[in-house]
Write a structure and sequence with these properties.
Layout: E1 9-12, E2 21-26, H1 35-39, H2 42-45, E3 51-56, H3 72-88, E4 97-102, H4 104-115, E5 122-126, H5 144-148, H6 151-156, H7 161-165, H8 167-170, E6 179-185, H9 191-203, E7 208-213, H10 219-233, H11 240-244
Length: 250
C-alpha cells in the first residue's frame, strides 16, 4: 500500500508454533528478491532453526524514502515488518528481529538500523555501499536525483552513513542502537567504505564488529556471510573464520 504497487517477496518460514525470529535480507544494486535463494544456501542454513527469512525487492532505490519518488524506507520498516509479523507468526520483539544486506542492501540495512534502532537486534552489512555519496560522480545505474535529490538535499536528509554515526552530529544514546556486523572481502574494490564506516562508528561509541577476509564482491563471499549470520543468530559462532578458517591472503 505504501508504494502503491505490487511487490514480490520470498519467505522461508519454520514449521512450528510461531513467535519465530526473523532475518530480513536486502538485495544489491540491479537485483531483486530472488538471488538469495538462487545463489546462496540460506535455505539450508536456516533449516531446523527458529529463523524466518524475508526477502523483498527494493527496485534499486536504496531502501530509503526517495526525495523524488516512493517511500521505500517506510515500506520496509513499517508495512513489510508489520505484514510479515502478522502473516507468518513472527515474533514482534526487537531482540528477535535482524536485518542484513549485500552491497546496496548493506547500505539499506545499516540505514534502517540507524534510523529505526527500536526494530532490530543486530544489523549485518556484506560488502556494503556505505559511502553512497560517491555515486554522484559515478551513478552506475542509480538515479541519484530521484533517490536522494541533489547534493544539498542528500546532506540535509541524513543519507550519509558516515555523518550519521559521527558523535558531534548524533546527540543520541548509542546504547539504544543495534549491534552492527560489517563484513567485506579483501579483493572487493569498495572495501575502504566498510573500513571507514566501522572506524567512524567505533569512534562514536557504536558497537561495530568488523571482519575482512579473502573474497570479492560476489555471492561466493556473501554466501559465507549469510552462513555466519545464521550462526550468530543461533549463538553457535561469532566469526566467519570459525566456519571457513582464516584466509587473509589476497
Amino acid at each position: 500500500k505504501i508504494l502503491g504497487m505490487p511487490v514480490m517477496m520470498n519467505a522461508l518460514i519454520p514449521q512450528g508454533r510461531g513467535e519465530y525470529q526473523s532475518l530480513y535480507l536486502l538485495h544489491g544494486e540491479g537485483g531483486d528478491y530472488t538471488p538469495w535463494l538462487a545463489k546462496s544456501k540460506v535455505a539450508e542454513y536456516v533449516e531446523n532453526t527458529n529463523i524466518a527469512v524475508i526477502m523483498i525487492s527494493g527496485n534499486n532505490k536504496c531502501f530509503v524514502n526517495n526525495v523524488h519518488g516512493k517511500k521505500y524506507f517506510q515500506f520496509l520498516t513499517e508495512e513489510v515488518t508489520e505484514t510479515c509479523t502478522k502473516w507468518f507468526g513472527l515474533s514482534s520483539k526487537r531482540e528477535d528481529r535482524y536485518i542484513a544486506g549485500m552491497s546496496m542492501g548493506g547500505y539499506g540495512a545499516v540505514y534502517a538500523g540507524l534510523n529505526r534502532p527500536d526494530l532490530y537486534n543486530s544489523v549485518f552489512s556484506y560488502s556494503g555501499l556505505l559511502d553512497v555519496k560517491l555515486r554522484y560522480e559515478n551513478p552506475q545505474g542509480f538515479n541519484m536525483y530521484q533517490i536522494f535529490g541533489n547534493r544539498e538535499e542528500f546532506e540535509k536528509g541524513n543519507y550519509d552513513l558516515l555523518d550519521c554515526v559521527k558523535e558531534d552530529n548524533a546527540g543520541r544514546n548509542v546504547d539504544n542502537y543495534p549491534k552492527f556486523y560489517i563484513r567485506c572481502g579483501l579483493q572487493d574494490s569498495i572495501i575502504d567504505m566498510s573500513r571507514r564506516w566501522h572506524d567512524a562508528a567505533e569512534e562514536s561509541g557504536f558497537t561495530s564488529d568488523y571482519y575482512e577476509t579473502a573474497g570479492g564482491h560476489d555471492f561466493i563471499f556473501w554466501d559465507k556471510c549469510i552462513h555466519e549470520t545464521v550462526e550468530i543468530i543461533t549463538g553457535k559462532s561469532y566469526r566467519m573464520e570459525d566456519i571457513y578458517g582464516n584466509n587473509n591472503e589476497c
